[in-house]
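Here comes my example:
=====
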Amino acid sequence: MNICGICKLSGLACTCGAAANDNCQFDPTFIRLPPDGVLANESAVHRLAMAYRGKGLSRRAILDHLTDAFVSFDGVAVDARGNRIDVPGIEVDDTFRTEDDPSERWISDFLRAGVAMPRRKAQARVLPRLRLLWLALAITNRMQAELAVA
């Protein structure tokens, strides 16, 4: 049995090598995170923040939205290197360090990036948060997530 080196699924279930044309069905249960360099880009952060501003959620509601999306996800997600992600096991509060910032001020700063374009790339220390925000958006609205990093 052939096992895909990227998503670790059998060759029958793998969609990594599927052609991006009309002959291949789009698989909503397979998500590949974009590379960190793409997520850290000013325009990607701006569009991602715009997507979350449009939801009209409070800071805490955004974290709850992420948790709900991850718990309900029944598919396969891989990072940019092809390593499988345990989506239901993601601890949102640990990544966003809510014990150090109970008011979730970082989320307010992030949402502000949806109004004004950030002046520089996102720092490496916030990339785990951006990954989770993008992943939740991809789970709930794949097209919007793809446009955020286009």
Remarks:
- The chain has one domain: 30-148.
- The two ends are 35 Å apart (CA to CA).
- The longest strand covers residues 30-32.
